[in-house]
Amino acid sequence: MARLKGGAVIAVVMVFAVGGCKDLQDKGSSGAQGSGGGGGGAALAAADALPVKGRAPKTGYSREKFGSAWADTDSNSCDTRDDILKRDLKDVKFTDGDCKVSSGVLRPDPYSGKEITYTRGRSLVDIDHLVALSDAWQKGAKYWDASKRIALANDPLNLLAVDASANRGKGDGDTATWLPPDKAYRCTYVAAQVAVKKKYGLWVTAAEKAAMKKVLADCPGQKLPSGGNPTKAPSRFKAR
To answer: What is the CA radius of gyration of the chain?
Structure first.
């Protein structure tokens, strides 16, 4: 514990991986929180409580429905992509100031377990939407106002720096159709998807819920990530 003036106390809580799963790479970006929150089994319980419906048609979906890419919704003067790179990479270097990330190392990549060097302008590292935007569209986001969709697209809780090739293999898959190749990360990955769907009120398909519960059954003490940004973006941000 650290003690400040006036006797205030700051408690530092270390959250450890449970059941052989790795922690979500969350080193503190604007609005981002650690993977604590909830007691043992919180992720499995939350998955079981998600509403189940069929997948709605993709009709009407476009990336623009979620606003311009990497909008600075937390108003820290850095775009969301750079916020996540700064949070998830090690050995980070910047181009001017401390906002525009020029290089760093993904050590390890959560999806493959490999070490990947990031250099700006090369497409070796992507920022993945853990819950893909088109998946969200088909499971509730189609009916939201633009502010909520923009918030989802830029919420650190739903974003992770990953190997570009693995991310593109995922596409817009949900838990029923895609899981990270690195099996040790699957509990953390699924718990994060559950957290996002719970936070934003998205539903899941029956197959998706079954897949989530199957993964989380192997780590019954898996906690549920929490935090991130508000579920409404500031009014200055617009979407088509």
So the answer is: 18
**Digitized pLDDT (tens) for each residue of the chain, 240 residues in all:** 444 444 443 333 333 333 344 444 433 333 333 334 444 589 999 999 999 999 999 999 999 999 999 999 999 999 999 999 999 999 999 998 999 999 999 999 999 999 999 999 988 999 999 999 999 999 999 999 999 999 999 999 999 999 999 999 999 999 999 999 999 999 999 999 999 999 999 999 999 999 999 999 999 999 999 999 999 999 999 998
For the entire predicted model, the pTM comes to: 0.84
224 residue type, one letter: L
DSSP 3-state assignment of 158?
A: helix
